[in-house]
């Protein structure tokens, strides 16, 4: 590095020459380390490292932040989905309608809970489950529908709700990505019988490992989930198994949240509003640069605004022609991206026994060919966004613009 450059010029040169990872939170942890260290110290002093007072404190703070009547901390977003399905009364063989375009945990959670996933397509101009496809998928065995709130906005909960009410179905939300998203003031996960949050490190509110939570306003679902996560116990003694006659509870598991993860999450929760706003700023910058480029067919800011809905940009996803070639170009330039998702769930080998064929759910299949997620996190700089956009423009225009 040129020693005569000013500090700002050296910083700019470093940004231009260094790799841009898809996700990074090292600056956040450096900034918040004194607070994180203090909360972790409280855990060490207390000596309770799992299912302890720090978890309880985090649950209470998250209830306040989301408005949920109950938050049940568990060890992953996936476990939260399984516990939600079981606590809501899913029986062996019950069908749950889920979108074909989502992470595999949405469907495998149904399997782990004893149910059968049934796949529906997604909206023509979005990524949420299509209520019309949901209605076509209903059978006499359908018990629930589980919309997924993906990337930057809620699924069509009004449309899904209308179908569910007409057919007597329970609505459970895979809101793992949706912290901060609200509809008319109600937080994601509280628009049906219950929902979940994931605190996987790359999430908008991320831990330093796996952690998750179940959200609900339903007292019975919350009580059952609390017992399931702790081997069927409602208390802390080895003799306290009040649900011993209830198969849902007696087959409980060990899915307690670690207190050190809760300590990190409690610290970061206090800064979450600022992180959400920073993500929105960066996403707007992407939109301004990328909208209208040849081959870019959709950007987050181009989707219709839904009245009353508060968006949170967890992933900045574009739909673009030549997605794989563009991803390779960006990788060669040191820019990380992610493909959400390479193959729709109804065409995954693990679900081949359900009998789907290519073309069954065309919108989900098309998005799997064109969607690309760009770097987005609170530590990303404006200059890094501009560099990503420069490389995308160079690829799509052949360097002619």
Automatic annotation (TrEMBL):
SUPFAM superfamilies tied to this protein: PLP-dependent transferases
Keywords of this entry: Aminotransferase, Pyridoxal phosphate, Transferase
EC number: 2.6.1.-
Recorded GO MF terms: transaminase activity
Claim: Transferase is one of the keywords in the record: yes
Region (Disordered): 1-20
InterPro entries xref list: DegT/StrS_aminotransferase, PyrdxlP-dep_Trfase, PyrdxlP-dep_Trfase_major, PyrdxlP-dep_Trfase_small
Similarity comment: Belongs to the DegT/DnrJ/EryC1 family.
Name of the protein: DegT/DnrJ/EryC1/StrS family aminotransferase
Organism, as annotated: Nocardiopsis alba
């Amino acid at each position: 590095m040129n020693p005569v450059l000013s500090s700002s010029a050296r910083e700019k040169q470093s940004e231009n020459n260094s790799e841009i990872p898809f996700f990074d939170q090292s600056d956040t942890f450096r900034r918040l380390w004194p607070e994180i260290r203090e909360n972790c110290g409280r855990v060490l002093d207390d000596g309770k490292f799992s299912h302890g007072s720090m978890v309880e404190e985090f649950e209470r703070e998250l209830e306040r932040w989301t408005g949920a009547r109950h938050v049940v901390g568990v060890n992953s977003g996936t476990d939260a989905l399984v516990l939600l399905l079981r606590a809501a009364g899913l029986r062996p063989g019950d069908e749950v309608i889920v979108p074909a375009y989502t992470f595999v945990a949405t469907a495998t959670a149904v399997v782990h809970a004893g149910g059968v996933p049934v796949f529906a397509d997604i909206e023509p101009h979005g990524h949420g489950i299509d209520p019309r496809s949901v209605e076509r998928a209903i059978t006499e065995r359908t018990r629930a529908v589980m919309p997924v709130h993906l990337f930057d906005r809620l699924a069509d909960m009004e449309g899904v709700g209308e179908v569910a009410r007409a057919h007597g179905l329970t609505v459970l939300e895979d809101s793992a990505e949706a912290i901060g998203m609200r509809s008319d003031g109600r937080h994601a996960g509280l628009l049906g019988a219950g929902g979940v949050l994931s605190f996987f490190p790359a999430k908008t509110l991320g831990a330093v490992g796996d952690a998750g939570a179940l959200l609900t306003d339903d007292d019975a679902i919350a009580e059952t989930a609390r017992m399931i996560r702790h081997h069927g116990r409602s208390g802390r003694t080895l003799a306290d198994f009040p649900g011993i006659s209830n198969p849902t509870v007696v087959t409980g598991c060990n899915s307690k949240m670690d207190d050190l993860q809760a300590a990190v999450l409690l610290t970061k929760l206090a800064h979450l509003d600022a992180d959400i706003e920073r993500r929105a700023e960066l996403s707007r910058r992407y939109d301004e640069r990328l909208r209208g480029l040849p081959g870019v067919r959709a950007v987050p800011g181009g989707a219709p605004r839904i009245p009353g809905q508060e968006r949170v940009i967890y992933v900045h996803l574009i739909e673009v022609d030549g997605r794989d070639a563009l991803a390779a170009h960006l990788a060669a330039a040191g820019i990380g991206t992610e493909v959400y998702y390479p193959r729709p769930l109804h065409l995954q080998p693990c679900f081949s026994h359900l009998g789907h064929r290519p073309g069954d759910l065309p919108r989900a299949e098309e998005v799997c060919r064109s969607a690309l997620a760009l770097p987005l996190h609170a530590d990303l700089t404006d200059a890094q966004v501009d560099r990503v956009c420069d490389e995308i423009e160079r690829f799509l225009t052949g360097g002619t613009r």
